[in-house]
């Protein structure tokens, strides 16, 4: 039996259709399903492939059996109808319709009657695919004109601003989850016990020589009082630890040795010293620091009128 309409073609098409369907319906987040569940998917697709091949074989076998039950005349008729490859007839018809060209034999109908040294011209119609595209672009242009120039729906500036705003939100979201990205401007006081105990470990490993284990101070200033040389509050303390103190005082820039997340932890730990009473407190140095974001209760109006800028970059003198 000849012409068993490209069974492998059908299998391939069905196989890829299943893959596409699975991508659409399996919820695998941002990743393609194949990357999210590789073994499962490969196993499943191998099974599907086997199944498709099996079906193709069975169909073929049934067809053969039925074919052999036919008489000679019926066999011929059957083969004749199979000859027309139905898969392609619709596509071919459509293609020809869209081209709209006359077949060679019919060119006589549209030939123009001038003749330049043997060169003659056909009066071809515009190809329908082109004409339809042209109409579509007119419709598009009308809708566009009315929407953007008559009703001023939105413009490129607005579109840009919306996208920037959305991106900014994403950055905020990202920074919240990525602890390592903190800097002196974004750092917040950490309160988790795990962060504080990590900060304690860092403090005891690096800082006690000058600040004492209880923060009472030695070579370095007392960290338990309200007085700060370089500014209090998480942002200033983070900045001091990260960038170091004034030149020649002995407080180095710890950003060489500590990661931003670790500096945030040790800074939070340092702020926990506030209000504790160390064994040998060093005399207060610097000014009492008032958080400009929580204005003193007695003078709320004044504090609001003259907000103190906590630009932590301004406190370093080196
Ligand atoms: C070699 C001694 C030394 C070590 C080690 C040291 N510091 Fe300091 N620290 C100082 C000195 C000195 C100052 C005062 C700097 C100045 O006056 O500019 C200071 C200032 C500070 C301040 C600011 C205090 C204020 O009043 O503004 C903080 C906060 C601080 N250190 C935290 C730390 C932390 C956290 C560590 C460990 C990671 C550390 N220090 C390690 C000597 C040290």
Automatic annotation (TrEMBL):
<keyword id="KW-0472">Membrane</keyword>
<dbReference type="InterPro" id="IPR038414">
    <property type="entry name" value="CcoP_N_sf"/>
</dbReference>
<keyword id="KW-0408">Iron</keyword>
<dbReference type="InterPro" id="IPR032858">
    <property type="entry name" value="CcoP_N"/>
</dbReference>
<dbReference type="Pfam" id="PF13442">
    <property type="entry name" value="Cytochrome_CBB3"/>
</dbReference>
<dbReference type="GO" id="GO:0020037">
    <property type="term" value="F:heme binding"/>
</dbReference>
<dbReference type="GO" id="GO:0009055">
    <property type="term" value="F:electron transfer activity"/>
</dbReference>
<dbReference type="InterPro" id="IPR036909">
    <property type="entry name" value="Cyt_c-like_dom_sf"/>
</dbReference>
<dbReference type="Pfam" id="PF14715">
    <property type="entry name" value="FixP_N"/>
</dbReference>
<dbReference type="InterPro" id="IPR009056">
    <property type="entry name" value="Cyt_c-like_dom"/>
</dbReference>
<keyword id="KW-0812">Transmembrane</keyword>
<feature type="transmembrane region" description="Helical">
    <location>
        <begin position="129"/>
        <end position="146"/>
    </location>
</feature>
<feature type="coiled-coil region">
    <location>
        <begin position="157"/>
        <end position="184"/>
    </location>
</feature>
<keyword id="KW-0479">Metal-binding</keyword>
<dbReference type="InterPro" id="IPR050597">
    <property type="entry name" value="Cytochrome_c_Oxidase_Subunit"/>
</dbReference>
<protein>
    <submittedName>
        <fullName>Cytochrome c oxidase cbb3-type subunit 3</fullName>
    </submittedName>
</protein>
<keyword id="KW-0175">Coiled coil</keyword>
<keyword id="KW-1133">Transmembrane helix</keyword>
<feature type="transmembrane region" description="Helical">
    <location>
        <begin position="6"/>
        <end position="26"/>
    </location>
</feature>
<dbReference type="GO" id="GO:0046872">
    <property type="term" value="F:metal ion binding"/>
</dbReference>
<feature type="transmembrane region" description="Helical">
    <location>
        <begin position="38"/>
        <end position="62"/>
    </location>
</feature>
<feature type="domain" description="Cytochrome c">
    <location>
        <begin position="194"/>
        <end position="274"/>
    </location>
</feature>
<keyword id="KW-0349">Heme</keyword>
